[in-house]
Each structure stands twice: as structure tokens, then as C-alpha cells.
Amino acid sequence: MEKDNSFMKRKPVFSLLISMSVPMMLSMLIQSLYNIVDSIYVSRLGTDALTAVSLAYPLQNAIVSVAVGIGVGISTAISIHLGAGDQEKADRSATLGIALTVFHCVLFVLAGIFITRPFLSLFTDDPAILEDACDYTYIVLCLSFGALLQIAFEKIFQSIGQMKITMYLLIVGCVINIVLDPILIFGLLGFPVLGVSGAAIATVIGQICAFLLYIAVYMRKSYAVHIRLKHLKFDRSIIRQIYGVGIPSSIMMLLPSVLISILNSILTALSDVYVAVLGVYFKLQTFIYMPANGIVQGMRPIIGYNYGAGENERVRSTIRYSLGCAAMLMLAGTLLSLLIPEQIFTLFDADAELMSAGVTALRIICIGFLVSSIGVIYSGTFEALGNGRNSLIISLLRQFAVTVPLAFLLSRVWGAAGVWAAFPAGEVIAAAAAYVLLKTYKKGAFSPF
Question: What is the pLDDT of residues 237-255, one digit of tens each?
């Protein structure tokens, strides 16, 4: 174990952070590009098909949220125990993490069978759209074991610093998906025309292939953690540790969907163009926050390992460098939003009304980008330290608890501008709360300044 993971406390912090973060940034970029390509293929089937897949999104997003959230919990537990030199607990964390994931697979199969049609029926009366949405959802939910287990292994490999492996296998899964999409949707190369179902089948095949590749890679040589039946022992403390981080992390991933739904209801009363602006903004902010989230994924195992090893100064140093890198990225996003908002909205074929509303929105919202670095990095820090509660508090303040009521109140005074102003206000309040929470956590032992 020491031979494989001692670099976490030996390698210079900045170069270690960069080497861990860059592959994650590239992975997230590939994933984002895949999502766009997938939507383009489905849209060629017509608006109804795209609507059907969109209706399935909340349930599909639930799979990813649970998988990533619990994966972060597994990764945190492994990193901390490896840093503390407790190989047995690290191995047990990995093994129990996979066992819990298998349990979640069973739950999603049951959800696919019993929840799909009643849930989707709430959102459409069109029988054709409902059937397509059900066909798509049955497949992605009942065969979700590929996504769940793939992400569990991804987080296990990240916890031991094997970032390049996770990047390569994510790319392979996405490429398989992209190649199979047109073949199965449109019936190319002698395959039957499967339409929306073809898109779902391509998705699950890509996920299952990535999962099987993780198994193959794991079996090739011995890594810093070992998944073995002998480690499959009920351990209340480890299960609590995994879920203590995993459940808040899953909730955090679900928050943006809830936020968009509520803000859309506020903006619809003002004008439909503002709903379009919000949709464009959330596409744009993915590319602004994606590199910062890559930094968070890179720093988590470093902080967790050194926290377990008692290397508090390296923990503080990692947080400082992460804040600096995130701030530089957010500053670049702020400058682009202030200086060339028209050119940005031109990419979306914005007409005069959308352009005017969009430029105003982007220039107001971007005021909060720089200060959001604190909320993003501190939230990830608490995850790495095994404190999911504080991480969730910061994320709730950033994406829900402040933004929603302020958007409602300020929209009564300033219209749509009040909704946009709620974004930077939420970031400022969340940043202040994050600073206080870390400053007082364990008597300020990990406060970076």
C-alpha cells in the first residue's frame, strides 16, 4: 500500500493537484460533449422523441446522482483509511461500497418496473410520447447496474490516485455510446430501426462495457485496495461513513434540477424569453464550473489521504492551491461574460429579444463566479474530510436556500433582473458560511489561511 500511495504525501502539492485534476477535467469535457451528441441524434427522430427522452431525464439523473454520491462516500472512506495506514478498513470500505452499489442496482430495477409509467404519466397525455418515454426509461433503469457499478469503480480508482485510468475508461464508454447511437437509432449496418429504445440500449451498452473494462483492469495487477469476499463484513461505522458523505452528495447533485424547475415557474410569469435565457445559462455554466469540479475531484483523494495520515499542513496547502486554481478559472469566466456576452449568445442563434435579455442576465450572474470558488472548494473539502453535513449546508445555500426565496422576492421588485441577482447573492452568503464552517471545524485545523 505504501509503495502505491505514498506519493499522496510525498509529491509536491501543486504538481500532485494538477496531475490529479487535469484528467478529471478532460473526462467531464468528454461526458458533456457526449450528452450534446446524444441529444442531436435523438432530435433527428422529431420533437416528440426529444420530448420523450427529456421526460426520462429526472429518473435517469437520479441514477447518476445516487451513483456519484455514494461513489464519493466510498472514495472518501478509502482515502482516509489508506492515509491512516489501516489497510483492512480501506479494503473493507471498497468491498462494502461495491456491495451497497449492488443493492442500489436492485432498487433501481424495482423502480423501473413499478414507478416508470405512473411517474411519466404525470407529465404527458400524449400516448405516443408516453410510450417512447416508458420504453427509454425501462431500459436505462432496469439495466442501470452498468452505470452504478462503473461509477463505483471510477471513484475507487480515483481514491488511490489512478486518475488516468478513470479518464481512459470513461472516454471508451462514451465513444462506444456515440458509435452505437446512430446504428441502433436509425438501423444502420443491418440492425433494425429501434428509435428512442436504440438510444437507451446504446447508453446502457456503453456503461456496461466501461464497467467490464474496470473489472479487467482491476484484475490485471494489485492496486492499493483489494475487493475480496473476506472483507465483506457488516461494519456499521464504515457504512455510516459512506452514507454520511454519499447521501448529502447525492442530494447536492439533484439540487440544480429542482432549482431550474422552481425558477422556470417564476420566470414564466414574466416572459417565456427569460426561461430560454435560464436554459442557455445553465448550458454555459456547465463549461464554466466543469474545470472547477475537476479540481474538486482531483483534490478529494489528496485531502482525504493526508487527513488520515495526520498531515494537516498538506491538507491546508491542497485547499489553498485548489482555491487559487478555481479562482483563476472563475475569473476567466467572469471576464468573458462581462466583455463578450453578445458573442457568447450568438452561438445559440439568439434573436434580438433573447440577446438583450441574455446579455443582461449573464453580466449580473457572473458577478458571483469568483466568490463561488470558496463555496465549491470548501464543499468538496468537507466531503474529503468525511463531513457530508457541512458540505450539504454549503451547497444548499449556493443552489437553493438563498437563491429561491431571493429570486421570488426580488422578481417582484426588479423583474427578471431580480432573479439573476439572486445567483451572486447566494454565492456570497454561501462563501461566508463556508469560511465560518471550515474556520470552526476541529478548531480551525484545516483553515487554509
Answer: 999 999 999 999 899 888 8
Q: DSSP character for 192?
A: -
Q: Tell me what pLDDT residue 260 has.
A: 82
Alpha carbon distance 132, 124 (integer Å):
11
Which residues neighbour 224 within 8 Å (Cβ) at sequence distance 6 or greater? 1, 4, 5, 82, 90, 160
The closest of 389, 368, 369 to 292, measured between CA atoms, is 369
Residue corresponding to grid cell 458533456 = 32
Burial (CB count within 10 angstroms: exposed 0-12, middle 13-18, buried 19+), residue 325: buried
CA dist., res. 370 & res. 329, Å (int): 8
Instruction: Report DSSP letters for 193-247, one per residue.
Output: --THHHHHHHHHHHHHHHHHHHHHHHHHS--SS---GGG----HHHHHHHHHHHH
CA 46/CA 211 separation, integer angstroms: 32
- Cα separation, 246 vs 339, in Å, equals 39
pLDDT of residue 35: 64
Residues 6+ apart with CB under 8 A from 356: none
- List, in sequence order, the alpha helices (H) in 7-46: 7-10, 13-43
For residue 406, what pLDDT is reported?
95
Q: Quote the cell numbers at residue 359.
A: 446579455
What is residue 390's predicted lDDT score, i.e. its pLDDT?
95
* Segments of the chain with pLDDT less than 50: 1-3
Give the relative orientation of helices 196-220 and 13-43 as an angle to the nearest 10 degrees: 150
CA-only gyration radius of the chain, Å = 22
Among all chains, which residue has been given the C-alpha cell 495487477? 221
What distance in Å separates the CA atoms of residue 140 and residue 111, rounded to the nearest whole number?
11
For residue 307, give the H/E element and its range: helix 272-308
Distance CA 404, CA 391 (A): 19
Give me the pLDDT at residue 348, please.
63
How many residues appear in the chain?
449
Q: CB–CB of 389/449 below 8 Å?
A: no
Count of Cβ atoms closer than 10 Å to residue 10 Cβ:
9
